[in-house]
Design a protein that fits this description.
By secondary structure, this protein is an alpha/beta fold. It is built from 10 helices and 14 strands. The termini are close together.
């Protein structure tokens, strides 16, 4: 099935380099590079230039898209180029919906209009509002080229439908990948797990551990018929967003794929908490999956 991917870009190297991920990871996808001429900020003018602001804005946008085309050609790929005018995050969401985009990929930093964390402004707004899966890329083009994509994939699960959808997404989109199914037991107190033996909380932790093991077993069963390599299922203890990020880095994973919604203690939307925190802090690509593979 053909996948359509939207890559919003601006003048920052991070957003341009975000284009590399779909070029490498989705060889059969239709990739569209979108630049939005920001009507709220005039960041396109050049000091001393007599050229009208609107013309400078248009010319700069066209140059940005030309650069995207050049990057695609380096990978023997082509991209569709689209220039829009408006408020960036709103236009990105509108374009995604109106053109039936399956997936959005963004660099983790960008500019709108000055260099600032992209996640926290445009990317954060898009992740929260766009109805499809998104990938946040924190790495440079050279760093991505050194990765083995699809490579080793860490998929955190918490028993929610969205986390299972993320696992199914990883299995269907990256059949060559090597998946680790990961669950963090979140303890609502400051104890170290090794120090609780014989204490009144031991049974409580044992119950949480048993539930976590059941979540991992259920997740493995969800994709047992798929032709995909599950390297292992791992259970850890700790604060979920920190545990996920640290485990991924310490064990040399190439990317993280997780549900954009899930449940913790109590049930809640993960976006805005765990998933958003992981995508903001991760030093490797993070994909937040919305819906099931055939919907993303």
């Amino acid at each position: 099935m053909s996948v359509t991917i939207l890559v919003p870009i601006d003048r920052s190297s991070q957003s341009i380099e975000g284009l590399v991920y779909p070029l490498v990871s989705f060889p059969d996808a239709t990739v569209t590079a979108l630049h939005v001429l920001d009507v709220e900020h005039d960041a396109y003018g050049e000091v001393g230039s007599s050229e009208p602001s609107d013309e400078q804005r248009q010319r700069t946008g066209e140059q940005i898209l030309e650069r995207a085309t050049e990057i695609a050609s380096e990978y023997d790929r082509t991209v569709e180029s689209v220039l829009e005018t408006g408020i960036p995050h709103r236009k990105i969401v509108e374009y995604t919906v109106e053109h039936d985009i399956d997936h959005v990929v963004m660099g983790s930093h960008g500019e709108s209009p000055i260099v600032r964390p992209f996640l926290g402004h445009v990317s954060e707004a898009v992740v929260r509002r766009v109805p499809v899966s998104t990938t946040i890329i924190p790495e440079s083009q050279s760093e991505l080229e050194q990765r083995e994509l699809s490579g080793r994939i860490l998929v955190p699960v918490d028993g929610s439908e969205q986390s299972v959808a993320a696992l199914e997404y990883a299995a269907s989109r990256f059949p060559e990948g090597r998946i680790t199914i990961f669950h963090t037991v979140a303890l609502p107190f400051e104890y170290e797990v090794d120090a609780i033996e014989g204490t009144y909380v031991e049974n409580f932790v044992d119950n949480l551990t048993e539930r976590g093991e059941a979540i991992l077993a259920s997740a493995e069963k969800a994709i047992e018929g798929d032709d995909v390599v599950v390297e292992t299922a791992e259970l850890e203890y700790g604060e979920p967003s920190r545990s996920i990020g640290e485990y991924a880095v310490e064990n040399d994973y190439d990317q993280i794929i997780m549900g954009s919604h899930g449940r913790s203690l109590p049930t809640r939307i993960i976006t805005g908490s765990v998933a958003e925190t992981v995508s903001r802090r991760s030093s490797i690509p993070v994909t937040l999956v919305s819906g099931h593979p055939d919907e993303s």
